[in-house]
Amino acid sequence: MSTTRPFSPGDRGPEPSGASGASESGVPATEGPDEGSAAAGGSGGGTVPSLRPVESVEAAASAEVSAGRQVRRLVLRGQSGVVPLARDFARQALYAWGWLPAATADQRAAAEDVLLVVSELVTNACLHADGPDELWIACDNKVIRVEVSDKGTGQPAPRTPHRAGRPGGHGMFIVQRLCLDWGVVRTPGVAGKTVWAELGAPA
What is the rounded CA–CA span in Å between residue 178 and residue 194? Predict the structure, then answer.
């Protein structure tokens, strides 16, 4: 498995769809402890465990549970309207994990940042990778981790130089600015990639 490092919304209340662990269209969504057993290098030289289990080792993946982490998964492949679907799913998770409703302006901004990053990663997969396969979102105390998998071969990166007035091309720049860290994970012999991003809660 390899990872590539990049170069240096509203609070409407929980939506009725997906609240019981399924999306509007009946696609199952799951919640549970961290199921990821794969790892990729992060910015600090340590490991960044993926939320997605290694498909051939389900028992081993479920055995490697990280205490205190809550994980939700939404299948997006084949769905229509995936960006609002993903945002609503992420909003429901934020309500379940106590990030919403926000008690302060800083908490509201942090929740809106999560929703914006979800939108940008899913949109990027739509524009450059024939659509996203899955969205994984996890909460581990003070950090939210978002993963979007797709079958694309391209390499997401902020457009350089970034020009604020130019239309389009701002998605990964926004992700880079809002997140503690982000990157790309690929598995040898498996088509596609997973783009991940981590955001911190307000102090």
Answer: 19
Residue 117 burial class via C-beta count within 10 angstroms: exposed 0-12, middle 13-18, buried 19 and up: buried
What would the pLDDT profile of 88-134 be if each residue is shown by its tens digit? 999 999 999 999 999 999 999 999 999 999 999 999 999 989 899 99
Do residues 115 and 9 touch, judged by C-beta distance below 8 A?
A: yes
As a whole number, the mean pLDDT across the chain is 73
- Whole-angstrom CA distances from 190 to 95, 153, 186, 193 are 34, 11, 8, 8
Read off the amino acid at residue 40.
Answer: A
Predicted TM-score (pTM) of the model is 0.69
Question: Judging by beta carbons within 10 Å of its beta carbon (0-12, 13-18, 19+), is residue 172 exposed, middle or buried?
Answer: buried
- What's the length of the chain? 203
In three-state form (DSSP H/G/I as H, E/B as E, the rest C), the secondary structure along 22-48 is: ECCCCCEEEEECCCCCCEEECCCCCEE
